Amino acid sequence: MQRVRKGRTSLRLLKEQKWLFLMSVPFVLWVFLFNYVPVWGWTMAFQNFRPGRAFGDQEWAGLSHFAELFADERFYMVLRNTLGMSLLSLLVGYTVPIAFALLLNEMRGKVFKRSIQTIAYLPHFVSWVIVAGLVTKMLSVEGIVNELLMLLHLTDEPIQFMAKEHWFWGVVTMSDMWKETGWNSIIFLAAIVGIDPELHEAATMDGAGRFRRMWHITLPGIRPTIMVMLILSIGWLTSIGFEKQYLLGNPIVSDYSEVLDLYVLNYGIKVGRYSYGTAIGIFNSVVSIMLLLISNGIFKRMTKESVI
Amino acid sequence: MRLAAVKSGGKTTDRIFMAFLYALMTLVGIVTLYPFVNILAISLNASEDTVRGGIYLWPRVFTLDNYRTIFQYSNLLTAFGNSVLRTLLGTLAGLFSASLIAYSLSRKDFVARRFVSLALAFTLYFSGGLVPVYMLIRDLNLLNSFWVYILPGLVSAWNVFILRSYIDGLPYVLQESAKLDGANDLQIFAKVILPLCKPVLATIALFLAVGQWNAWFDTFLYNGGRTSLTTLQYELMKILQNTSASSGNSGAVHGGQELANRVSPESIRMSITIVATVPILVVYPFLQNYFVKGLTLGAVKS
């Protein structure tokens, strides 16, 4: 009896909320198809996968692709590049926007401040294809950067920025800074605006100067935002993508430009070694989840809060 | 009051700081804008004159030949059309899916709310990876098809969550009174909620449109062999990669020899870059307020 009634109420609910179901469930199925089904594709890493064969007919390979991966010297180079460039971009893509937001907040002229904001957010909306083109142009032998360096007598002959492998990480990091600093500062600027102005007034009364207020009030005021953004970016360390590296790189600098996703592209998809490519992808996902959990754990211990 | 207090103490250091601050910000502005101005100038300058160098802020020998050439001789018109089409369709489809899901998630009484929400949140942190997604697209027969630009990314969890937190902020009374008037959920959504969401819908539309317009990798990976499905960013990418590989020598430009003979690869690159940038530059200032609000809203919530 009880069960029947319960069944009836859920049926009634289903009928009552049919529009809500129709609005969301088809899309959830969609998400399952395009975001969850690929996870099933991870099985490819443990097979000698051949396209066109049924799942049951695939030849199983155990962990041999992983063994091959860890034995490949190039893999460690690629891993070094991935971590190196993401640490650099974490460092710069993090401190510079905070500094920029702090400075922007000190500006008084409204029109000038707004114009600078508008200009600084702009490059975020331009594609990496275009930014790579601009960077290559500006850093070329007859580009403006070399012209300025020569004018200031900092160098006697033009520097071939794009052909120096040891400079590649720097070029990528600087391009990233140019493109994203303004955009990344929005979130910190919003946090700064949310700080109680009375704190500043009280500190001023006590004789604190501009810099002491920035250090003792503004920075601590946006600490929660800083922490959350930091944890999130640590989780994304290995998933820096490859757009910048692909677009800015060239064969001369490939020892320093190749990152994990590019490695998948070159040694997985392009030559049809799908199983090997999948193994790299799995390694990438596992590392980034580990990093996310570790950084979240440290954060939890420090502040007794959790981001994820 | 704050200003007055500051002025009474440390006047000179403050002046120096302000001078430094404004100088620095001016520099930031110049460094950000100069590359755009420079390529615009080059794209409007006669090709044979550009080779001599020395073009900075404005063209020396003004001409529209570069633009005429790129649109005449390459498949740039097809690419432009495809880019516009994917931007329009992708934005509409994305808005449609995000707003429907967001509304159902905003309803506290919806039984499947937690399930839908979790299913979406998972996708923010996790993806199958390049190869499995590629195999799926292949199995679904989406290789060499226009629909690969629209379908795989139809649902974006991020946009859904931004929109939901906005709907959560609307007064619930509106929905209740509509319900008393006998409206069903679809009607409440379409007639009460959606009109109130215009600002946040504008934000999301901007994100979607920019993402679609700037995408090149899907063309590269899935549709690289079909010239009829090419996009503007992909064409630009090919041209930039080609010329940088041959270290700026002429002749290697994609799109035919006759093109390279008339104008230099440099001028071609700069004009296509401008064609790919201008739509964003035109739309951007009008929507600036919207996206700043949308971004902070989403971030506070997450």
Describe the structure.
The complex is a heterodimer of chains A (308) and B (302). Chain A is mostly helical and 308 residues long. Chain A folds into two domains: 59 residues, no CATH class; 237 residues, Orthogonal Bundle (MetI-like fold), CATH 1.10.3720. Helix content of chain A is 72%, strand content 1%. Chain A contains 15 helices and two strands. Chain A has a two-stranded antiparallel ribbon with strand order 1-2. Chain A is globular, with a radius of gyration of 26 Å. The relative contact order of chain A is 0.11. The model of chain A has no long low-confidence stretch (mean pLDDT 86). Chain B is built from 15 helices and no strands. The relative contact order of chain B is 0.13. In chain B, helix 2 packs across helix 15 and helix 4 packs across helix 15.
What amount of the residues of chain B lies in strands? under 5%
- Adjacency order of strands in the biggest sheet of chain A: 1-2
Please, what is the oligomeric state?
heterodimer
Helix-strand makeup class of chain A: mainly alpha
Helical fraction of chain A equals: over 70%
The largest interface is: A-B, 91 and 97 residues
Supply the number of structural domains of chain A. Answer: 2
Kindly identify the CATH topology of chain B: MetI-like fold
Spans where pLDDT lies below 50 across 5 or more residues of chain B:
1-8, 245-257
